[in-house]
Amino acid sequence: MMSMSCQNVDFGRMRFNFIACCCSSNASSDRLFAKSNNVKGSGSKKNIRKGYGARKLFCFRSGSPKCRVYSTKTPETLLNGISDDPLPVLNVRKESSDPISIANLFEVVADDLLTLNKNLQAWIEFNDMSIVRKIHQDENPLLMSAAEQIFSAGGKRMRPALVFLVSRATSQLAGLKEITVKHRRLAEIIEMIHTASLIHDDVIDESNLRRGKETVHQRYGTRVAVLAGDFMFAQSSWYLANLENLEVIKLISQVIKDFASGEIKQASSLFDCDVQLEDYLIKSYYKTASLLAASTKGSAIFSEVDRNVCENMYEYGRNLGLSFQIVDDILDFTQSAEQLGKPAGADLAKGNLTAPVIFALEKEPKLREIIESEFSETGSLDEAIELVKSCGGIERARELALEKADIALQSLQCLPDSAFRVALERMVLYNLERID
Q1: What average pLDDT does this structure show over 320-335?
Q2: Is the pLDDT of residue 245 over 50?
Q3: Where is the signal peptide (predicted)?
Q4: Which of 129, 179, 224, 321 suits 51 as a labelling partner, its CA being 20 to 30 A distant?
């Protein structure tokens, strides 16, 4: 049986109803929408040309049998599980012109995130005391001070939030009344691994600011920063081993290896105008999507749902992660230095060729000349940025981000209708809104 979901979505001044087909068919999809609340039947649906836009976020499989459309009037009933009656699903946006906020997005797991923050702070305090007692007094306490600095700098806690959302969504599927201690510990491990990777990334990128505060290496020096990152990787690995689930241990351990592989792959292809889109996607998987994919699949494994659901959660995390990275790479060209917190085109200036550049290189030979000269002439970086924009690189990268977003959404069709599944879907929309 297939189901179809109708969602009221606001984009700027216009509200659209999105139709999401829950079909798993591999047939090509037609994306469609209708203004306001005028979706009455197939006669009111309008096919949209192939091109980026929020209006084509969800797919409709043409030629499908008549699908069931659920009401979206009472989202509070989503928390009550599945009934025999048509359920309200996929209220992707509230009826407001305001953009999706992280606070609203993660509201259904707010208590889980609060517990996570308390546990991470307790971990810092415990280890700080332990290090002071056991190791040299002068330098090693800086390791925990460094970790505390980046934890206290804030952040969206997106990765542990995804762990909690998938954990709760799949727990419902498995008939569990509550998520387990292993689910919670997994969320903490994922955040520790992510934080460790940020510390090392800032060293590699020579970044002075992170979330508006001094980076660890800027404040404490490169040696302490590297050791702090290593320490957090080691601690997360120890906690991971204590989960005593070999499949999850292998899954998360691979992520740490992928981080290194991604950095090596990036460093080996700087200013290489022959880099292929496939290479870019592999690197993006290593650096960004691998952790998200492992997080979401690991959550499903601990819910003890069937293998197909676990693999779908992996594909959700993988494609959401790729879409996020592509959007970040677009913003490097479309936002100002003030918005980015770093100079616009910073990746390009370092020779890191991302999706917009790879697409633009297919059309503009002059761009290759400028990049291969490593921006030796004054104003050449600005010229390259303008060529990326004028040659359609941004638009084609948007298409790619949307393609990955579509796959992520389709991967959620195995989950029961719930507020947690809605939040997972809205996460995809939140990402695309950043370039809308």
Answers
A1: 96
A2: yes
A3: none
A4: 321
Quote the pTM value.
0.75
Question: What are the phi and psi torsion angles at 69 (to 5°)?
Answer: -115, 125
Q: Which CATH class is domain 102-340+394-433?
A: mainly alpha
Among 34-48, 186-200, 201-215, name the one with the lowest average pLDDT: 34-48
Model pLDDT, residue 291: 98
pLDDT digits (tens, 9 = 90+) for 5-42: 344 333 333 333 333 444 433 333 333 333 333 333 33
Residues of the chain with CATH 1.10.600.10: 102-340+394-433
